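job 3f2a | input accepted
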Amino acid sequence: MSVIIPLMPRQKVPALSVSLAGGGVWSLADRNPENFTMIVVYRGLHCPICGKYLADLNSKIAEFAKRGVDVLVLSSDTQDRAETARTKWGLDNITLGYGLSLDVARNWGLYISSSNGVTSAGVEEPALFAEPGLFLVRPDGTLYFGTVQTMPFARPAFADILGALDFVIAKNYPARGEVIDHSAA
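job 3f2a | predicted structure (185 res):
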């Protein structure tokens, strides 16, 4: 049985490399953002909530770029499903990855769900897929912020993240939640 181990702020995140809808490969090791790389994991084409969430992000990509934040959106979907999501949801501004392996998803602390069949959107869920997560990674490859979920609901709002980034960047605010052993306190 696999156990989810949370990533720790100020520690290196696991390696991440995925194929991109439209062609090419994206690798975290190759990124050199001014401030952060934001990695947004979505459930897949079967999730209508994901479509709305990512459409909001698509409309704000330029705002993230102004703040020195590179963005990758990815799922464990196949290439065909990712390409369909890109077109169906109008994700023309987003770098969209696919084929996130479940082992890598677990390394990132993501929850894995099994299929419940056809969703309200009329799309079959994959047999297994990663649940949502959002991570801000510093240029040195360390985790600044992370959130993972067991459900598609109540994800961090991108407008709130933009506001937080303004504060964090202006104040050089440190990553929090970094204490592993609190017995010495």
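job 3f2a | The chain has four helices and nine strands.
job 3f2a | closed
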